[in-house]
Specification:
Chain B: The chain crosses the membrane at residues 30-49, 69-91, 103-123, 153-179, 191-218, 238-262, 274-295, 307-332, 344-366, 378-400, 421-441, 461-482, 553-571, 577-595. The complex is a heterodimer of chains A (207) and B (616). By secondary structure, chain A is mostly helical. Chain A contains six helices and no strands. In chain B, 67% of the residues lie in helices and 2% in strands. Chain B has 20 helices and four strands. Chain B has helices spanning 11-20, 24-52, 63-97, 106-129, 142-145, 150-178, 191-222, 237-270, 277-291, 306-318, 320-334, 343-366, 368-374, 378-408, 414-440, 457-487, 525-531, 554-571, 578-598, 608-613, and strands spanning 410-411, 489-490, 546-548, 604-606. A two-stranded antiparallel ribbon of chain B has the order 1-2. The chains are: A mainly alpha (207), B mainly alpha (616).
Chain lengths: 207, 616
């Protein structure tokens, strides 16, 4: 089995992430997992839509959402999705250093996004006294957006572990599926954010 | 690690082997033993419920304890008995039926089991501190306002075990898509494999809705959110929707594998191929699809309005069509067959009329207008026990008799098998048939007493007698299982004249299943080889090294971490010290994940020479 050896451009299969049975299993398993995650977020979106006007006399979405910061966050996350595509492109060309570089950029963009989100939440809590406990709308908002933020955080931990663990040994058929499944997961988080941007922030701002 | 190293050395090594195993056949044993244990607990709870209801205004147990009893009975039977036993059977049989050496993710398979196990233990720990008492459906606001920590145990227990079930589902899906033997196309897969596949899809798309529902309930109870708190704008109906979006597919997660079991048993003992194989597959898919469209038929009396009620009523009735296709296909499989009647076949034959009665009452409760009369009465209790006991439990018992030789290498005793069947079968109908009429006469479910001389006395008395018959049947089966372990007759590779791949290898199978992967030439591959005079499968590959996964203790430790964290979540509302459990437990769980991720695990190889040395 070749999974102990680093790859060189000559022996490199076209799709290193799917060259072994283990790789194909991981690839498919992650797709199925994302299917389940879709239902998870769909349930959260449904709950949010049912409760978004249930402010119990407290602050409403139109009072607090500022589209500027959220637009910046959207751009950060969309760009990070693009950079993870660059990383996968370099993986398929067996350019480990460039892959690591672009994965690093992806991680930094994700981290900035998370920082913005924490700032946003702190802003709502401190300036508007809008919390998880203040109304059903508050509970639904922080749960939906927080679940997404939690997914970003988990993705960042995952990415960091992968990059550090494999920093010295380069790409092989054992770790290529790991990088690839991470990138799939990262795209998924990005897609969920697009829906959050639309359903929560755009629809919340126009009322 | 070699073949020699995996052989038993002592009790300690035996326990360690099961704690660390990633072999699907051993994980199946774990599921069956743990699920069987929870089945006995759930059965005991059922018996206590029936004793309380044996006579009017009985005071065998208090009202509060009765509420705990019904909640624990329902929760235990669905989540910790029926599902794990079915997952155990899937683990034991499905990889063999598709000619695979293991499942796609052996490590995750083990993790799924341990999460289920610790979830079940978590739920049952509540017996010592006050059990959940809001019904197995845990409707808000009853569940959000229930005092004590009972419902908290329900939430955490189901959350932990639910994560395990989801992993099990994904694992089976990937296994079936990626790891079928050469020639095993989708439309050659045995029906049990097909139903495993479809039930896993249901698990994948249904369980996350429960996960979210449980999170919302948890946040409301433990962290002060307001999802179900009407004073702060919350809406308690959201719980009902989320619960049933999960809960209705859940009943198909239970019954479809049972359908698959019967579809494998009938052809074997009728010596005929399954009638209408293609129709059976598509009926399964159709039932699964419709199963997602009908959740609100549990909520007809909530007040969704006549329009929504009608849509859900019609969608529900539509499920009778594919189910009817299945019933007729089983009957036509038997038609003109050379039928052997043994214990496995008795359970299967008894299933057809019993389940059909349950299906018929299903159509009755699906009629939304009439449901206002049936809702929350014993009619509904009778209905779902006819489908779940008459369908799922009969299916499990049929499967246990059928695959016991393959799983444990011993044949179950036929006399005891038949005794258990007849007492359980008679007891089952005695218990539940009369409940239809109790319900129609107006006896509500979940009440701990009923009044004298309202026409309910005799019916309840008969029902309780039936419960004792069922108990006797279960005890006989239990004795049979232990007896087979101690001095049961050794099983040959193919005791029933089987048709599918699992009967082509020894009983119990070697840990690598197939020395050489078999070449599948059609539906019922072993039967094809038998009719053509070969008697055994043609190998699809030369003898070579076999790649095997390493055992691991990490799944156990990770699940233990979540278990400890669960107590932290429950008790952080009372004591700050509980945060130690919460963060400590999560650190153990996430740390285990990190170790698993960082430590390379390439598995090991059984060499060709070792395989050649082994006597066949």
């Amino acid at each position: 089995m070749s999974h102990d050896h680093s790859l060189n451009p000559e022996t490199m299969p076209h799709n290193p992430e799917k060259a072994t049975l283990e790789g194909r299993n991981k690839f498919l398993g992650l797709w199925f997992f994302l299917g389940g995650e879709t239902v998870l977020f769909a349930s959260l979106f449904g709950t949010y839509l049912a409760l978004k006007n249930s402010t119990a006399g407290g602050v409403a979405s139109q009072d607090i959402f500022g589209l500027g910061l959220v637009f910046l966050m959207t751009m950060l996350l969309l760009t990070s999705s693009l950079t993870s595509v660059y990383a996968m492109y370099h993986m398929k060309n067996n350019n480990f250093k460039k892959m690591q570089l672009w994965l690093g950029v992806t991680g930094l963009l994700g981290l900035t996004f998370l920082g913005c989100e924490i700032y946003e939440f702190a802003h709502y809590i401190n300036d508007y006294d809008f919390t998880f406990r203040s109304s059903a709308f508050g509970s639904a908002f922080y749960t939906l957006v927080g679940f997404h933020g939690g997914h970003v955080l988990f993705g960042l931990c995952w990415l960091t572990a992968l990059m550090i663990r494999n920093a010295k040994r380069g790409l092989n058929l054992y770790n290529a599926p790991k990088f690839y499944t991470f990138s799939l997961y990262w795209h998924f988080i990005d897609v969920v954010w697009v829906f959050i941007f639309t359903v929560v922030y755009l629809m919340g701002s126009v009322g | 690690m070699s073949i020699a190293a995996t052989q038993k050395k002592g009790v300690g090594a035996f326990i360690w082997e099961y704690l660390t195993t990633v072999d699907h056949k051993k994980i199946a044993h774990l599921y069956l033993v743990a699920g069987g244990f929870f089945f006995l607990l759930g059965g005991l709870e059922a018996l206590i419920i029936r004793i309380q209801l044996i006579s009017p205004e009985n005071d065998f147990i208090t009202a509060g304890l009765y509420n705990e009893m019904i909640t624990m009975h329902g929760t235990t039977m669905i989540f910790f008995a029926a599902m794990p036993i079915l997952l155990g059977l899937m683990n034991a049989v499905m990889p063999l039926q598709i000619g695979a050496r293991d499942v796609a993710f052996p490590f995750i398979n083990s993790l799924g089991f341990w999460l289920f196990f610790f979830g079940g233990v978590m739920l049952n720990v509540s017996w010592f501190t006050g059990a959940p008492d809001a019904g197995w459906t845990a409707y808000a606001p009853l569940s959000t306002t229930s005092p004590g920590h009972g419902v908290d145990y329900y939430i955490l227990g189901l959350q932990i075990s639910g994560a395990g079930t989801l992993m099990g589902g994904i694992n089976f899906l990937v296994t079936i898509v990626n790891m079928r033997a050469p020639g095993m196309t989708y439309m050659r897969m045995p029906l049990f494999t097909w139903t495993t596949f479809i039930a896993s899809t249901l698990i994948l798309f249904a369980f996350p809705a429960l996960t979210v529902g449980l999170f919302l309930l948890m946040f409301d109870r433990m962290f002060g959110s307001a999802f179900f708190d009407v004073a702060l704008g919350g809406n308690s109906i959201i719980w009902q929707h989320l619960f049933w979006i999960f809960g209705h597919p859940e009943v198909y997660i239970l019954i479809l594998p049972a359908f698959g079991i019967f579809s494998d048993i009938f052809p074997t003992f009728a010596k005929k191929r399954l009638f209408g194989y293609t129709a059976m597959v598509f009926a399964t898919v159709l039932i699964a699809f419709l199963g997602f469209m009908v959740w609100a038929h549990h909520m007809f009396t909530v007040g969704m309005g006549p329009f929504a009620n009608s849509i859900f009523a019609i969608a529900t009735m539509a499920i009778a069509v594919p189910t009817g296709i299945k019933i007729f296909n089983w009957l036509l499989t038997l038609w003109g067959g050379s039928i052997t009647i043994n214990s496995a076949m008795l359970w299967s034959l008894a299933f057809i009329p019993s389940f059909t009665i349950g299906g018929m009452t299903g159509i009755m409760v699906a009629a939304s207008v009439a449901d206002y009369q049936y809702h929350d009465t014993y009619f509904v209790i009778a209905h779902f026990h006819y489908v779940i006991v008459g369908g799922v439990v009969f299916g499990i018992l049929a499967a246990l008799h059928y695959w016991w030789p393959k799983m444990f290498g011993r044949v179950l005793n036929e006399f005891m098998g038949k005794l258990a069947f007849w007492t359980f079968f008679i007891g089952f109908h005695l218990t539940f048939f009369i409940q239809h009429f109790l319900g129609l006469m107006g006896m509500p479910r979940r009440y701990w007493v009923f009044l004298e001389d309202q026409g309910l006395d005799t019916g309840n008395y008969i029902s309780t007698i039936g419960a004792f018959f069922m108990t006797f049947g279960v005890l006989v089966f239990l004795y049979n299982a232990i007896y087979s372990w101690v001095k049961g007759e050794k099983a040959p590779a193919d005791p029933w004249g089987g048709r599918t791949l699992e009967w082509a290898i020894p009983s119990p199978p070697p840990f690598y299943n197939f020395k050489q992967l078999p070449l599948v030439r059609g539906l019922d591959p072993l039967w094809i080889e038998k009719t053509e005079g070969n008697g055994k499968m043609t190998p699809a590959e030369p003898l070579g090294d076999i790649h095997m996964p390493n055992n691991s203790i990490i799944p156990f430790i990770m699940s233990l971490g979540f278990f400890i964290a669960g107590f932290g979540f429950i008790y952080q509302t009372d004591y700050n010290a509980a945060y130690i459990l919460l963060f400590g437990g999560m650190a153990i769980a996430l740390g285990s994940m990190l170790v698993r991720s960082l430590k390379d695990d390439h598995g090991y190889h059984i060499t060709k020479e070792e395989l050649e040395r082994e006597a066949d």
